[in-house]
Specification:
The structure is a homodimer.
Chain A (H helix, E strand, L loop, with lengths): L1 H6 L2 E6 L28 H7 L10 E6 H10 L8 E4 L5 H13 L6 E6 L3 E2 L2 H18 L2 E6 L10 E4 L14 E8 L4 H10 L2 E11 H11 L1 H11 L7 H11 L5 H6 L5 E6 L3 E2 L4 H7 L8 E3 L2 E4 L5 E4 L3 E5 L4 E6 L2 E6 L6 H10 L7
Parallel strand pairs in A: 1-2, 1-4, 2-3, 6-10, 12-14, 13-15, 14-16
Antiparallel strand pairs in A: 4-9, 5-11, 6-9, 7-8, 7-9, 8-10, 16-17
Amino acid sequence: MNNMEQQLPVYAVIMAGGVGSRFWPRSREKNPKQLLEIFGDGTMIQNTVKRLKGFIEERNVFVVTNKLQKNAIIKQLPNVPVENIIVEPVGRNTAPCIGLAALFIDRFDPKGIMVVLPADHLIGNEPEFIRILQTASQVAQITSGLVTIGIHPTHPETGYGYIQVKDRSEETQPVNIDGVFEVKTFAEKPNYATAVKFLESGDFFWNSGMFVWRVDTILNEVHKSLPELHAQLMNLQHSIGTPLFDQNLETTYGLIRGISIDYGVMEKAQRVYVVKGDFGWNDLGSWDEVNRLASKDEQGNHLHGKIIAVNSKNNYIHTSDKIVAVVGVDDLIVINTPDAIMICKKGASQDVKEIVDHLKRKQMNEYL
Amino acid sequence: MNNMEQQLPVYAVIMAGGVGSRFWPRSREKNPKQLLEIFGDGTMIQNTVKRLKGFIEERNVFVVTNKLQKNAIIKQLPNVPVENIIVEPVGRNTAPCIGLAALFIDRFDPKGIMVVLPADHLIGNEPEFIRILQTASQVAQITSGLVTIGIHPTHPETGYGYIQVKDRSEETQPVNIDGVFEVKTFAEKPNYATAVKFLESGDFFWNSGMFVWRVDTILNEVHKSLPELHAQLMNLQHSIGTPLFDQNLETTYGLIRGISIDYGVMEKAQRVYVVKGDFGWNDLGSWDEVNRLASKDEQGNHLHGKIIAVNSKNNYIHTSDKIVAVVGVDDLIVINTPDAIMICKKGASQDVKEIVDHLKRKQMNEYL
């Protein structure tokens, strides 16, 4: 099995267009979450590439991003070829993004395996993660199907989509590999009661947003499910690598309808598989999540930078410059950056994006 | 009565040596509370002088301070003669401070009336305040006694000292002026239960720390109760206004024992009177007190500067530069200054001084 996998040409497509508004004020349009060092050494996108080492070479890494982030990404990933940094003129959700990346790879390896990864996830057990991606690549190769990575759920999380798998008896084209299942259905983010049921049922996994398939497979599936998008992508194909491309892309993206790969393709496709993963995955969706994973002192505080804490416990405080002193406060997330201070009650950090919405409405662009 | 008062020569002695550590990070050693605009226009010391207008002329205002604050005070009070700014080499509590100021006035008006005022109190009803000071001056003149201003208590405050007055029947040298009483005893800051009893008894007032007496009276009382301090002051007397004075003061202050005027003189003296005042007094002892008096929006927030509040109520937020965004937080006091950020739970602001203690211990002098 290992021998076979090593022969497969595998490409990574890293989706790095987000602004990470839940991570304001550290995350900004020009310097979003994936370009930050949130944990330890290296930015999130650097670690996303680094952990593929030995499985996908950096020359086979493609990054889809936007104009604002392009230069920073080139700087942060010096070994990824500049021509592999694909710049969308505007964000149109994941289906166009993935289709565009597929076009780029299709030029020289139409049967290549694409591993699609968000740029801003945390992986605790990297060897296990690579093993899962290898299995998924094998499944994608054998079945010519769409493969997604499903995370074994540990609690009734309402912040993720879920994937329900078929019972072995229901499977129509079973793959006899341990931990690989046919998908029965995709479920949107549930409410709490539903999430509890999902967890109890045992046949639901968290949708990690990581996908594996062959280039020809995904382009065919886009053709079937999103024919308009497919035609738009085909219109672009001939100009890739020519001086016409940028203008062509700009015009085409102006017409493209934004749609997610889950909703636009995965939910409609026939051969969709899940490889079950359990490798310390975290999508780091909010400051609360960062706090949960952060180291703490005896008072339950995580203090980064010059900080004085008086009668205060269970706070996550990060300051880049000024000294921060807290007195008698518990359960706060405090983030101080060179131009902004954010103070959030623990548990409310999903609402940090409301600050960003407010800044947009008021056109306070210097803080976006 | 008015005619008589206008004939009295009255001097103000403003005690402005404090560092206001409960008002960190706005209050600093070089720029303490009394030199800040905490409410509305003008700094606290400017307003302390301004509200005396028509009663005490600025040329008759004396300020006792320290080296760090001297220049700022000269700048803030341009109409107070520079020679009236008295600089203590080191703080020795209120008795030496008041004794030193008395010496200065004694040189040209030994029978003058001294009104001793802290530099950092808030007065809501200024005409009533002046009326009370006029009454107190009259009592000081008539009785040759020590007069203190007692505030009618509105709640069982544990942060103030209290003054108990004699029943009219107990009075030995009654002054037949409404609202003027002989003092029975001074009480330290009480615990809550005692404060409740004080409030119920009806014969206790808050000790405002404002005093009125003749120069000769206070020097005599210091002589009686603190003979060592009196001798030390007398040693200074001959050199005031000469080039020897600074060195003399430095040497003398090195030997002086710190003691409060309350403990050292008032509690031991015979003829001590209270004039009862009710003029919207507030000693502005903490950020909580500032918050109580501040204007609020519909969510109960007081927001000064660039601030975004999401699902947050009853906060006091003051920012001098960076934008501050709060999410889901209630009952906080947030102060952002050019080099420091302080976040305090409402009700805990007495402990802000612990930050200053910590900074001192760690010799982080740039933040003091």
